[in-house]
Specification:
heterodimer; A: 204 residues; alpha/beta; Aconitase, domain 4; 29% helix; 17% strand; globular; B: 458 residues; Aconitase, domain 3; 5-stranded parallel beta sheet; leucine biosynthesis (chain A); EC 4.2.1.33 (chain A); amino-acid biosynthesis (chain A); LeuD (chain A)
Chain lengths: 204, 458
Amino acid sequence: MAEPFRVHRGRAVVLPVNHVDTDQIIPSREMKRVSREGLGEGLFAGWRYREASGREPVPEFPLNRPEAEGATILVSGENFGCGSSREHAVWALAQYGFRVIIAESFGAIFRGNCIRNGILPLSLPGKDCTQWRNGVEISVDLEAQKLILHDQTVRQYDFDIDPYAKKLLLEGLEPIAMTLSQSESIEEFIERDKKMRPWLYSAA
Amino acid sequence: MRTLFDKLWDAHRVEGAAIGGHDLIAIDRLLLHERTGGVALKSLAEKGLRPLDPKRAFAVMDHIVSFREGRDRDEARSPGGGAFITETRAMATEAGLNLIDTDHPSQGIVHVIAPELAIAAPGLTLVCPDSHTCSLGALGALAWGIGSSEAEHALATGCVRVKKPKQMRIRIEGRLPPGVTAKDLALHIIANYGANGGNGCAIEYSGEAVADLDIEARLTLCNLAVEFAAFTAVIAPDEKTRAFLEGKPFAPPSNVLRQRLETDEQAVFDREILIEATTVSPQISWGTSPEETISLSGRVPTDGREKALRYMGLAPGMPIEGVPIGGAFIGSCTNGRLSDLVSAAKVLRGRKVAEGVRAVCVPGSQGVKREAERQGLDVIFKDAGFEWGAPGCAMCFYAGGETFAPGTRVVSSTNRNFEGRQGPGVRTHLTNPAVVAASAVAGRIASPSSLPVREEAA
């Protein structure tokens, strides 16, 4: 079960690019075991470290800059998390410490993976959040659907989130248990379907 | 009035089970592979849960398996990768899933073998923790990629909870010019509307040019829907679909394959795009997103994108044809089927790969490999200087281990030109298999028609 998400305040790291794909978030070479664990160090490995095999940081990469130290909120452009379905991208972000991703838009599979792992995917369409200062403080209230940017001038934004994602995140619910509590409806569907498509249930 | 997608959705929606606007969709068949499926099986077992119906689930070895001909059953192409194979095998066996192991006669890339075995078929729902699952929509199935946690959910409950996406129809009218493939059509669409152009929609491809495509080409077209940020893609099944699937191991009965399944004439889409097929030309990507694609006869754009230009080692305004290459790869779930190998072999017959170019062809499945060898294509590839590999995802993505050297420019029949996708610092150009073959021969990015006339063997 993911940790419930209610309010969060933290420092933001800003990656001002579009189409950040999951190969960048966690390169396949960093997926070393059949496990959800041990991925935080591989996060953004190709951009964060000087060499593919090394761990010497690239100082100018936004995540490595002193003002972003301890960042828990990531801000990026459109189509964030596109590409491979690898949930390892979200596990790596979570293990690094991220709780909120703010992007113009998200890859569909990536967004689904976020809400199952206690990470809030948040969009403020047309607000060009990539112009925000690297290291800026942000607070998010999920129940109220409000975001506050604590910059020289404090700004407040309302955001949309679909009700299912909100419920999962707020309550830290376990989707499998939720669905298993509806087993009766599923069994009814299958019993009816077996009469219509018997071949599906007996194939090879 | 309903769309094809509406009909597929409605037929699988579990009544009275929606939560917060998310429907519960019954999954007919579930596909897993060793890279992201093993972790789902492991997590399920750790929770003490069992698959609801293991016989409708298939575990396939494709991502990490070695592509060395004569490979061992547990041989991986990346260090430590063997554990993904052995652990997935053990867990799939324990859970009672259909297992298509490394040494199985039907083994291959999951999206290549699902059509070959008719695991995917019209009217079915399929999911797989792999983004290119959208390929299978080419057969009139509702198929989409999910995460590992969702795969675990699908195993345990037989369902996936998902919000119904918006719908887009892309009609491609007229006929594609000679030498222009489904790959070019898909890249053309992404280049014109952007890598985010699909915007989470379910896309229906229709029109004369789509009806003209054979099933393998339709699979290529739908394969690239995820690079367009679509939820998935679907094509209405027709007589070609029925002929392709009939008699295959997991195919629905004939009478089911003959049922009409299509969008009602008056059905309304959230968005419609019309493409004139005659305007599509052979395409090649120049940058690090599939949207950074131009016509093969075109020039690298001059409108910024410094990061991609720097990574790719290209200058704005230069023609893409003639840029020297160091590698060529033919294979993958995008273009690793028999027709793809045939189109490359036509270019390669009687020709040699240029010096200094490493060229690799990996058939998408054992079935493709067998048929290619029966037709003598392997001899053409090998005589030309291509390596001939054992089926799997192979060099489509780097997972550690051996690959092209950093900085190598590779023309590739694959789907992603992301930074580092084929290896650290490797520069990937996406294009169709014939252009890959022609470029391998020329030692530079080249169209098949630009090659000198070959000397015919006596």
